[in-house]
Amino acid sequence: MRAIVFSLWILTAFLTRPAEAFAHFTINKHCREAHRLTLQLELNAANQLLKQAIASDIDNAALTYFQCQSHFVRAFISEEQTDFLTLQKSTGICLELLEDLPETNPWKGQARSELLLRLALVKLKRQEFVSAGYNIRKAFLQIMEVRKKHPDFAPAKRTAGVLHMAMGSVPENYKWLANLAGMYGSIGQGANEMDEAISSLNKDVEFSFLLDETLLMRAFCASHFEKNEKRALELMAKHANNPSGLFLFFQANTLLKAERFRDALALLNSYRPSTTSYPLNYVAFQKGLLQLGAMQTKEASKSFATYVNNYKGHSFVKASLHKLAWISLLQGDSAGYKQNMARVLTRGTSFTDEDQQAQRQAESGDVPNVYLLECRLLFDGGNYDEALQKLSGIPTAKVSSLRDQLEFTYRMARICEKKKMTERAIRYYNSTYNNGKDHTWYFAANSALLMGNMYEQSGDKKKALEWYKKCLALRRHEYQNSIDQKAESGKNRVSK
Length: 496
Prior knowledge:
Layout: H1 2-11, E1 16-17, H2 29-39, H3 43-56, H4 61-78, H5 81-98, H6 106-125, H7 129-149, H8 154-168, H9 172-180, H10 187-203, H11 211-224, H12 229-236, H13 245-257, H14 261-269, H15 282-293, H16 297-310, H17 317-330, H18 334-344, H19 353-364, H20 370-380, H21 384-392, H22 402-418, H23 422-436, H24 443-458, H25 461-473, H26 480-494
């Protein structure tokens, strides 16, 4: 959920605000420069540039559209009420101005769709689900209308592609609602549309400035929806010399999905934002996760504390405090563990799966098995040999509870899979699924998901589909949303 919800927000964005009569949509040098500045998180510079441009060309809806792009990025990152109200106001102004554009102009529907979609993404983080769903439906129907009237319009191919891929990943138990709302799509359909958009943008001088973020969006979809890390890395390689702003976030995210943990950490460590760029505090959280996976507990503690102390929003605050509690536990500091878990109950919100998990553990009062926790962190950092050695050496008496036994077989399955010990991995996954499917822990559901992935990669689509369905049949478990989304994506891929 983190990667999909926190990262789709960047994938859909990019354009601005309104005026009075005789509106037009002219993408000029000010629009292009503001767009570039926004991608680099130079939001104040982008806003100042557009403010001056709008003053001299108040009827150019494109200027306001790009201003809304800048407002969106700020509101999504900050999660602050004032920024949301600014975005809401500028979006309303731009939508009103777009009304004066002729129906023959494809930007009329394109801009409407992206404005509504961006607003919906911010509302989702604010847990305004009904209003967000309404906006997403309107955005979907609007972009489909543009695709129908202007089939060769490259920006619409991009937006439609993202939405079709997202619809193809909607869990089965929610798909009827999407269909009822007139929304549909598949991962393959969306991928084809996005590839067509990239091909068109490579040839189109007028819209070539949209190519960079379209490649980022395509890379994100390749790694998260298609499970095609190779393709994602190829796309991201085009930005190898641009480790700044939003590009850095996507590059690190793609490296993480490809399990290139050291490269991802090196990239984040190289981040040197300018003194004028808008702070991307999430980098500190990402660094903390990677440092913890490398068992660099001192550095990880500093990164998580930096995130908690500097970030004024709510997402991943509980998760950061949860990780700080884990570090205390690893260091034998039970008082520090309790103190940080108590803070989980009073800070942040429970929107992301990671924050929900932190909240549940804080409420339950259960203390993780420190032996299994260390193995988990070593695995998360890609240290499979060391994780296997430590897991194999845990005394039986230290994993006596049912939950610990399930986690033990689950961790063993994951390590065996990564070390290409396929038969052992399948045996451990099966054991975890059979013994844990009647419980709310995530081990059984994720075992079914990963079994589906294994069979899909081996070419056995029938077996893969069977396990994806088994995964989706399990309800009310931890990480429900993100596991269901991944299983639905897998089911969609093998059902083509």
